[in-house]
Give the backbone structure.
Amino acid sequence: MRHLLSTRDLSRDQAVAILDIAEDMADVAGREVKKLPALRGKTVVNLFFEDSTRTRVSFEVAAKRLSADVINFSAKGSSVSKGESLKDTAQTLAAMGADAVVIRHGASGAPRVLASSGWIDAGVVNAGDGTHEHPTQALLDAFTIRKRLHGEASRGKDLDGVTVTIVGDILHSRVARSNVWLLTTLGASVSLVAPATLLPVAIAEWPVSWGYNLDAAIDSKPEVVMMLRIQAERMNAAFFPSAREYSRQWGLDDERLARLPASSMVMHPGPMNRGLEISSNAADSSRSTVLDQVANGVSVRMAVLYDLLSGTSDLSGTSGVNA
Amino acid sequence: MTARPVLQAADITRALTRISHEILESNRGSSDLVLLGIPTRGVVLAQRIGAILDGIEPGTGSVGSLDVTMYRDDLAKNPTRAPGRTLIPAGGVDGKTVVLVDDVLYSGRTIRAALDALGDLGRPRAVRLAVLVDRGHRELPIRADFVGKNLPSGQSERINVRLSEIDDTEGVTIE
């Protein structure tokens, strides 16, 4: 694999292979020396044009555990705030010898521009672009689901037949998009629940079912309920009347939590708006995988960086993990 | 060129039995012994030696696996390899006598990687090396403590180890 731009590019075998490598990476976290020498001498640049805590820190920890050198670059406090273009920034990083660029950008498609422009010869990892995709988040969600379902016997398994309900702002959610493609590739059946104003127009072309009623979705006893954050920064129109009404209709409150089967998982990509899309009890219950997701994020990002950077760099194209 | 058999199934069993006795002898018993196989076939061999040790002195033969993929010095020169599994027995490796087990000893680079990997897991009292076949051509100052068969070979020749747990057949051939 040369770049990771979208979970749409991943085949089932490639996705399972990354999740399997992540299993091995997870074992490292439990050791006394939490470090592998695999990427010694490689340089990973975290290029963040949008705010982020967990994704940036997670990529940083992942790269450091693989012994790569990490350069953090955020748009605030850099020449980008003086008006430098993506092209000039990329060429500057290329001149400094970056082997991989982890990019988060407010514009959908920015990582693909970076990967295909020829400005820089580094592997590109999409860490969230606009309302397009967030592939490592989907991979860590799939990893978390698989780990909860199969435990130690997770290796080699896909998510065949697992029912996943994703609830909330689908329209603006890159997490939802990446998850839809990845989870369906892995064999899960995905349904989306949202106010009609927060479902994208093109949803009919997605391999999913959808609805507007969270109570009906909960009564169908999904194995996984994934709550999405209401992104205040993207609420630039009247998508729903008030926060309180949203919470009543589409929030996972205590009463809905009680109606979920005991074995169901409650996921949230974070950061959570407690009391809005998810109640505190739901977020802190034993069914919640929120903290697992953060911990697994490091393992999955290690697997992605390892896959992108460990082999010979002249293997261009989208060859598979074992290629 | 056709493959010439070097060891049959019975020869492998005999070699492993001898190695097991030698391990016990050099360790003066079976206390604090940890066998770590190097994936893929080293793990099978370690399990077999563990079973033999268990037959000689019940309750011994703590077996695990040690993946060395991340520690290889040729990682950047080959296409990305999928790593194998590292499983360390519950007692850990600190203060133990660790016996690394692999199928073929050749350049010694895998064992160098294994020593690095082991160093990140703890501090064994001693590390020994058991191999089924030693084919020579070392590129590093490494030697095996327990050898199933010394097999002088040309660098152009290939040694194939087949074990029934992984392959359909069992035996060692040279071609």
Q: What stands out?
A: The beta strands of chain A are 43-48, 69-74, 100-105, 123-129, 163-167, 189-193, 209-211, 224-227, 265-267. Residues 102 and 125 of chain A are 5 Å apart (CA to CA).
